[in-house]
Design a protein that fits this description.
Blueprint: H1 2-18, H2 20-26, H3 29-42, H4 44-50, H5 56-76, H6 82-103, H7 108-128, H8 146-167, H9 171-187, H10 190-206, H11 208-211, H12 214-229, H13 236-243, H14 249-267, H15 278-281, H16 300-308, H17 310-325, H18 328-332, H19 337-349, H20 359-379
C-alpha cells in the first residue's frame, strides 16, 4: 500500500512538471508546491537512499548548484528582498537536487512510463485549449509556452519509440505518433521542426547499416510519391504550420535580445546580474526598444552566463560534457539510442529556450544519468 501511494505521488509530481500551467489553472500555484512536498514525504526513504550513490557526475552537479547559490547570494545580498529571494532560490535549487539525485537512481521503466502518460495527457489538453492569442493559431498543452510544449513533444516521440522497442507494445506508437504529429503542428515551433530534422538525419546516419536495404528505398520512394500527390491546401493545420516559416519576426526579436545580452555579459562577466533578472535588466543594455515578449533570454547558455556569470556557465558545460563523454558512442549502438535522442532534443532546443531551472530539464538529465550509472554497474 505504501509503495502504491509513493508511486501515485511520483506520477502526480511528474505530471505537474509537464502540465504545470494546467494544474495552476485548475487549482492554484500553491498546488504545485503541495504535490512536490507530498512526493518528497511519501518517497523520503528512497530519496535519502539515492544520496548514497556518489559519482564524478554527482560531484560536478553539486558543485554547480553550490556556485549558483553562492552567486545568487552575492547578487542579492544588498537588496531589500534578499531573504525572500534567497529562500525561494534555495527551495528551487533543493528541488533540482532532489529531482536529479532521486531520478538518477529510480526505477527507469516506471519513470519513463509516467513521463509518457503525462505528455500524452498534455496533448489531450492541447486539443481543448484555445490559441495562445487572438493573433495566432498556435496552441500549447499542459505547459504555458508552445515552444516548451514542442520541446516536450520531441522528448515524447523518441520516448514512444524507445518504450515500443522495450515492451513490444504497439500502444506506444498507435497513440504516440498521431499525438506527436497533432501536438507539434499545433505548437508550430520553428526551432522544434529544425531540431527534429537534424536529429532524424543523425539517427539515419547512426542506423544506416540497418535501414539501407531495398525495402527502405521502396518505402522512401512510395512516401515521396504520396507526399507529392497530396493536396496540402485541404489540410488547414499543415498550412498553418507552413505559414510560420513565411515570417522571421520571432527570430529577429530574439536576435535583438541576444545582441543586448552580449552587452549585458560584457558588463557583468564574473557573477552576472542574478537569477531570473535578465528580462528585468536587458533594456539597460539594448540600443533599441524591446517589447516585453522579447526580453527573455530564449537561450539557456546565454541566460546562465548573463544571470550567474562565467563560472556557472563553465561548470554547466563541463557537467554536460562529463555526461556526454561517458558511453556516448556505445549508446548510439545500444537500445538506449532513443533515450539519447531525448537528451539531445532538450539541449538543442535549449539554444532557443530559457529552461535552465525547469524541473523537466533536470528530470531528463537525471534519466540519462540513470542509464549511464546502470551501464557502469553492469560493467563492474
Amino acid at each position: 500500500m505504501i509503495n502504491l501511494v509513493s508511486n501515485l505521488f511520483s506520477f502526480l509530481f511528474i505530471f505537474s512538471i509537464f502540465n504545470d500551467n494546467f494544474v495552476v489553472e485548475l487549482f492554484n500555484s500553491l498546488s504545485l508546491k503541495i504535490i512536490f512536498v507530498l512526493f518528497v514525504l511519501f518517497n523520503l526513504p528512497k530519496i535519502i537512499s539515492s544520496f548514497k550513490y556518489f559519482s564524478n557526475i554527482h560531484k560536478i552537479f553539486y558543485s554547480l548548484i553550490f556556485v549558483i547559490f553562492l552567486v545568487t547570494m552575492i547578487n542579492t545580498i544588498q537588496e531589500e528582498y534578499f531573504l525572500d529571494f534567497l529562500l525561494n532560490s534555495t527551495i528551487l535549487l533543493i528541488a533540482i537536487i532532489i529531482i536529479f539525485t532521486f531520478y538518477s537512481q529510480a526505477d527507469l521503466g516506471k519513470t519513463l512510463n509516467f513521463i509518457w502518460i503525462s505528455i500524452s495527457i498534455s496533448v489531450i489538453i492541447c486539443y481543448f485549449n484555445e490559441p495562445i492569442s487572438e493573433w495566432t493559431f498556435r496552441t500549447t498543452g499542459g505547459t504555458g509556452d508552445p515552444n516548451e510544449f514542442a520541446t516536450q513533444l520531441l522528448i515524447y516521440i523518441f520516448l514512444s519509440i524507445y518504450l515500443y522497442k522495450t515492451y513490444k507494445n504497439l500502444i506506444y506508437l498507435v497513440i504516440g505518433l498521431p499525438f506527436f504529429t497533432y501536438g507539434i503542428l499545433m505548437a508550430s515551433s520553428k526551432s522544434s521542426f529544425l531540431v527534429l530534422g537534424v536529429l532524424l538525419i543523425l539517427l539515419s546516419f547512426s542506423k544506416i547499416k540497418n535501414i539501407l536495404n531495398y525495402k527502405t528505398i521502396i518505402l522512401i520512394l512510395i512516401l515521396i510519391f504520396a507526399i507529392n500527390s497530396i493536396d496540402f491546401s485541404k489540410f488547414e493545420l499543415i498550412l498553418n504550420a507552413i505559414s510560420r516559416f513565411e515570417t522571421n519576426n520571432t527570430a529577429s526579436h530574439r536576435l535583438d535580445s541576444w545582441i543586448a545580452g552580449y552587452n549585458l555579459i560584457e558588463n557583468n562577466f564574473l557573477t552576472g546580474i542574478g537569477m531570473d533578472e535578465y528580462a528585468n535588466t536587458i533594456m539597460k543594455y539594448s540600443s533599441i526598444y524591446l517589447d516585453p515578449g522579447s526580453r527573455a533570454p530564449h537561450n539557456v547558455y546565454l541566460a546562465l552566463i548573463a544571470e550567474n556569470g562565467i563560472f556557472v556557465l563553465v561548470l554547466f558545460l563541463f557537467f554536460l560534457f562529463t555526461i556526454f563523454r561517458e558511453n556516448f558512442f556505445y549508446l548510439f549502438r545500444s537500445e538506449y539510442i532513443f533515450i539519447q535522442f531525448m537528451y539531445l532534443s532538450l539541449f538543442l532546443m535549449a539554444f532557443t529556450l530559457g529552461i535552465q531551472y525547469d524541473k523537466y530539464t533536470w528530470l531528463i538529465i537525471a534519466i540519462y544519468s540513470n542509464i549511464l550509472f546502470s551501464i557502469k554497474k553492469e560493467k563492474l
